[in-house]
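Note on ligand handling. Small-molecule inputs were canonicalized before submission; formal charges were left as drawn, and no protonation-state enumeration was performed. Where a ligand contained multiple stereocentres, the stereochemistry in the source SMILES was retained. For pyridoxal-5'-phosphate, this procedure yielded the string shown in the input block below.
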Amino acid sequence: MSAAALNARLAAEHPAAARCLSPLGARLYFPRGIPVQAKEAAACAYNATIGQLRGPDGHAAPLDALRRLVPALDADQSFLYAPQGGLPNLRDRWAARLAERASPGSAPLSRPFVTSGITHGLSLLADLFVGPGTEVLLPSPCWDNYAQVFGTRSGGILRSYSALSPEGFSVEGFAAAVGALRGPAVVVLNFPSNPGGYAPSAAEADQLVAVLTAHPGPLVVLCDDAYQGMVWDAERPPHSVMHRLAAVADPERLLVVSTDGATKELFYFGGRVGFVTAVLPGGGGAALEEKLTAAIRVSVSSVSGTAQAIVLAALDDLALLAQREALHADLAARWARLRDGLEAAGVPAWPFNAAFFALLPAPTDAEELRHAFLKDGLGLVSAAAGPNLRLSYASLQLDDIDPVVEILAKRLAR
Ligand SMILES: Cc1ncc(COP(=O)(O)O)c(C=O)c1O
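Structure output:
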């Protein structure tokens, strides 16, 4: 479909998404090139379309030096090109996972679209919806790469809302910042958060959703759900705000999209398997999928089949759940030890209850303090916003936590 025809279809299927397209997003279309022509010839007796080697049996013909390293994987999935959008079974498997978390009355979700890690998903969405001058509302503090993706790379105008208060999520600050947006604009939500390590209460999540649904739009609400399910305080909802938004989304005003992936959820950091999923209140979604397909074709073309085959096989492994739960229990134990240790030592911290992180207010320059802690033998990350210091307990052992708190207390205890 031409870009103009695709844009018209998107306007019919999802008006808010169509109105939010960046100049690049509006230009993108998936040409009827090699991938399309190869697919059309799939049933031919002689399919001489695609430039990839098949053996005498018509299947992948990997060199043994490579094949012996991944003997358990389906060789076709792992050694041939995966389609843009990802391995079909993997997409369906991830969709089933998301469906288990759906709120009552939720709008349908698109078939998850496989990306080369979550950062790539964010970049693809930035390609579609952020151009020079697009307002992008980011949490403060936030994962430092957002500024590069949405600002440096895509030319968006970065605005921020204060994501933390001593009581939890600052709904007032968020409401004021969203209220000041004149759509089209992009709002980024990240719960559990990096660097805050914070997941909202059910009441905070409801208030946040109410703020977004009251906006006249058009807005793209991007839920970066990298740490989905990692909420250590059992009182808090474990799942993404995306599911709450899916129950009230209005395609005239809001496009709700999520990025998530195997990176953190399966602790497969080096695998680079992420997903982009959209809420589609009116159904449809083909035009949005084609825009994403076009954006991936011009960036990485196709995501690693080997990594996708590994994730697919792992998701089908009945032992996976128990293995994940064991790691979650370990992380929750580190979290509880750190929370109690900081409190006992009088070291102030922003409220933290999820993901991998604790954020500590820096009484002086965060960068200077970081260097001072390096001399004490403790590596932390400094965040200019605040200023704050981020501690990742994911990379500490449980037994490291008490000595780390002791080091922290020498410089930060009040
Ligand atoms: C909030 C958040 N989003 C996205 C990412 C990037 O994930 P990936 O490594 O899959 O690109 C991270 C990684 O640290 C993150 O913390």
